[in-house]
Amino acid sequence: MTRLDAGGLRFNVERLDGQGAPGAGGRETVVLVHGIATDNLTSYYFTVAPVFAAAGYDVVMYDQRGHGRTTRPPHGYRIEQFSGDLALLLDELGVAGPVHLVGNSFGGTVALDYALHHPGRVASVLIVESEPPTEAWARKMSGLLAGSAYQLHDERTLPWIEETYGRHEARLVRWSMRLLHGTSIAEDIAASRIPDEAAWRSLAVPVLAVYGANSDLADMAGWLRGLLPHCRTHAVQGHGHSVLVGTPETVGPLLLEWVREGHKQLIGDPVELGESHEEPGERQEELREGRDPAPAGLHAGVPTP
C-alpha cells in the first residue's frame, strides 16, 4: 500500500499491476471507488480487483477521505470534494489515458460526478447499486447518514448489529462512528453541488449500471437509461444492495466484459430517449415478494435496527 499526499490529505492507495490488456497498445487502468461510512478499499480487494488485474488491467484502489486509513478531516464532504480527490489522485499517480471507473454504492455517485466534469479522462463508468447526485439523492443520503448517526448513539445498536450481522460488520460500524459523529458529513452531503438534468443528458461517457434485482435501487434502472444517453443496466437476480460482495463471481465477469468490449458498443450510439422506461417507484409492487433483506441504513453504509 502507498500513502499519497494530495489536496492537504494523506490517502491510502493500493495498486495492482496487470500484464497487458488484450488488444491494447498499453495497459489500461481501472479505478475502483468504494462506498460510504462502513466501506473502504478492501471491499474490492477480494472481489473484482483481482479479476481486472488477472485480465491485464492496472488497478487503482483508494480509501476515500474520512474512510479507512485516509485522513479524516472534520469538514469537507460534499460530492464535488470526493470527485475532486479522485482527480488529484490520478494526477499524483501519473495515470495518463482515460480510465474505467468502477463505483459501488456511494462510490458510483462519486464516479458519475467525476465523469460529468472530466469526460475526456474517462473511458467508461461502471456503477453497482448507485445513482447520480441529484437533489433527491442529496436529501436522502443526508437523512440516512444523520439517522445512522442518531441510531449509533443508542447503546443497544452495536450489540444488535453484532448479533444480527456478525463481529466483522460490528467492527466496521465502530469505525464508521468516527466519521458520523466526528465530522459534518451529513450536512456537507446536503450542501453538495448538484448538476442539473440537462448536464446528465449531455454525458457522452458509456455507463453500465448494475443492480441487485431485490434492491430498492433497482427501481431506477429504466429512469437512468432515460436520463443518461449512453447507459445500459443489468439486474442480478436473487441479490439486493450488497450484490458486489454477495456474488463477486457474477459481478466480476460482468464488469470485465463491459470494460473489454461492452462499452465500445455505446460510443457514439446514444440510446433513444423515447425507449420504454419506468420511473423510480413503479416496481415497488413487484419487489414486495423478494424485497432486499438489508436494512435501509445500509445505503448509507450502516445497518440499523
UniProtKB/TrEMBL annotation:
GO terms for molecular function: aminopeptidase activity. InterPro entries: AB_hydrolase_1 (IPR000073), AB_hydrolase_fold (IPR029058), Carboxylesterase_BioH (IPR050228), Peptidase_S33 (IPR002410). Pfam families: Abhydrolase_1. It comes from the Bacteria. The keyword Hydrolase applies. Residues 268-305 are annotated as: Disordered. Signal peptide: none annotated. Residues 29-167 form the AB hydrolase-1 domain. Keywords: Hydrolase. The keyword Hydrolase applies. Residues 274-292 have a biased composition (Basic and acidic residues). One of its GO terms (biological process) is proteolysis. Belongs to the peptidase S33 family. This is Lysophospholipase, alpha-beta hydrolase superfamily.
